[in-house]
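INFO  loader      accepted 1 record
INFO  loader      residues=907
INFO  predictor   begin
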Amino acid sequence: MPETSRKHRPKADQLLRTKLVPPRLPAPLVPRPALLARLDEGMARPMTLVAAPTGYGKTTLVAQWLGTRREPSAWVSLDPGDDDPAHFWTYVITACRTFDPGLGKPALAALRSSRLPSLDALVVSLLNDLAAAPTAGILVLEDYHAISSPQVHAGVAYLIDRLPATLHLVLITRAEPPLSLGRLRAHNQVSEIGAADLQFTPEETRAFLEQVVQVPLKPETAARLDARIEGWAAGLRLAALALDGQHDPAAIERFLGSFSGGHRHVTEYLAGEVLDAQPEPLQEFLLRTSILDRLAGGLCDALTGRSDGAGTLELLERAGLFVLPLGDDAGETWYRYHALFAEAMRKVARERFGEEELRALYLRASAWHEEHGRLDQAIEAALAAQGYPHAAALIEQGLDWRGHREVHAVRRWIEQLPPEALGAHPALCFEYAVAVLFTSDRYAATTAARLEAPLSMAESAWRGAEDGASLGQALALRALVALWQDELERAFALARGSLGLLPESDAFWRGSDLIIAGIEELLAGRPGAAQAALIEARALSGAAGSLQGQLAATGLLGDACVRQGEFDQALELYAQVQAEAAGGEDMLDDQAAAALGRGAIAYERNDLEAAEREAASALELGTRRGNDQVAVHAALLLARVSQARGETQLAQQRTRALAAQIQQPGLRREVLAWQARLACAAGDSEAVHHWYAGIALGAPAQQASLQELEDLVAARMLLADGESAAALALLERRRTDARQHGRTSSEVEALALTALACAAGAGKVAGDALGRALAIAGPKGYQRVFLDEGEPMRRAIASWGAHVAEGAPRLRAYIYRLLAAFSNDQARGAAKPAIGQARPAAPFEPLSPQERRVLRLLAAGLSNPEIARELVVSTNTIKTQLQSIYRKLNVTSRAEAGEVARELKLV
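INFO  predictor   done
INFO  writer      dumping tokens
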């Protein structure tokens, strides 16, 4: 890298401060009290939209209005370079710090990190700070039409929907922004000022012109001019400029009578009446500098070859020649041309100088920006000059400090490079592939296809250079692509290969690989090993500033806890994901996975309403994102909820519909296994045997978790067929493997099925298995693992529970709760018989309402006489009711009854 480039490399948090101040008010200025009053009234709503074509005086009106308000204000002048989420929010948050210097510190710190966090999470942080602000303020976003990024629009929409009372937002734009304005209008949340409102009235037109020419005008002359310009403020200023120095009333009247300053004639008018009227040196200056979005004396000198740029800009400002002062920054006073004027001058410059000369001017601008540490502006100018080799070098230089923080800007720049320029820079090929993946639908096959060519170019160059570290990054990116294309085995192999090449210092890509390694361990049935990989992945992602990586690792850690039966810890992890994944589309995958995990826990704990609610949320989010893994598992959970409620037909319809839709072989095989599992619960022997015949002819499942699911379904089929020995052998292998690798949920399920398999002729063995299952499951809150086995399991638990020792009140309470849940299932027709089994004769007997009242008072420490007085009954009646309670709870003392009542949450 040249020494000059190294010396002037910009910092990531460098801002153009002149974008954060409103333009000075032009002179002359016509008061517009009616519009100022409209803006005052708009303060009662969250947002004001000032939308009109260029030249209608939008900015002038808002700047004039701010001068009449007491509230502090913040201003951001937007341009095409801000069409990037990181740039946009950095400027917005920095502007808002005018309200409170401490506002937005966490958000700005995150934006300055090497990896861009969730932009919507940043908006949430900003909103929280604004809500806590001691005084109300006004935020103005000027030229919002320069923004086209869907991500920026989504963030602004999120901001508008949740604006605190301490902030009023004003958008100045040439066109209506895509911000659900219909909904905002319907809820009276937006005040609007449009082109029709901004049009000068005949009276205002006349007052404006008389300030310029200082000669009284005939009312009909002003009215005629107003009709021709249709109230267009820029047209009036053009007319005023042409009249500058004119004092002959007759000449003024003649000019105004023939003026045709409509939009179609602006360029011709500016060129013929304004530009041509200037001295030749000034014309040259205007045309050569018209390519600039922002003007400073030194920058203009670089383009003109002169040394009077600062003085010329001051002269233009005093002359009112469409130059707007922006303020001082880094020792330079900055300006910008009026947009219409600049566009017209560029057209003339192209005609007068030709394309080659314009490209040379852009290259000079690029060199000046680079020398002064403004790398973004240098890149934009080099691209405009079609100086692609230099632009590519500048972009690559910027990656040293930019990283993946601004993938939208990187993608926009690189897409302007021709293939030959891109091919000479393997790092840019790789960064473009990264940008495509992280700014597109990651699950779409077209996304994978689009990044293949640049990624292959990068890999080819790195192999030739024997650059192992860079090849490791390429493999890590390919692993992510394969994961999101559901090519799991390929993703796992690529991640392992990548980890062998990446240096320890590469936190971002090592963290990504370890997340994939954690998924591999989970699917292999090793949640402990998965935890180790995911804990390291979360730490590395945090060090790299990757919120997405942290969220993914945290959610997967929750899944590992579920497999280990650590439900409460899993819920805490899912809650972390839900709290931090606040915002838009890029956070929906994490929200969906967390909802699915919470739903699975709610189902196991027999909270079917919560399970259904969470599964429905996960299904909606997964479908919206095209995330088949989450969507399918959410739909399967909904089918299980339906089965648990006795809605067997609905459950079967759900699984049949899934099986018909899913194309991925592994995912479809899992759906078919669950379809067979639900058929077992419904007593559909034919369907189960048909499924088993299909998998018996094929290869074993690639993933251990899927093989375990199929084996446990097969064990239920063997058990129903009376082949207890075969079922026991299969279950013992499963139980041993589950215990060895810490899969508590699988171990409990295998033990429960073992108890059913042994129940026919080996009561003690069955009791031992069931006892171990209940002892493990009780403290963790398992229920559906037993309830889903129907009446045979209820009888086994009731029989075994009758012999539980009196010294085990918690286990007794757990058994009581399970039997009560069985009773509820039976009452709603949900407890279907297992294959070949009959329905039970009678449900479990619960406590009566009066017995519940007695139990609550007993647990509160009241004596029998005190309970009798409280309930207005005799002491003998209380004694009788206590005996009934003891019998139903299977306890023998007041203390034991109170402990069981608390365990069952009856008090």
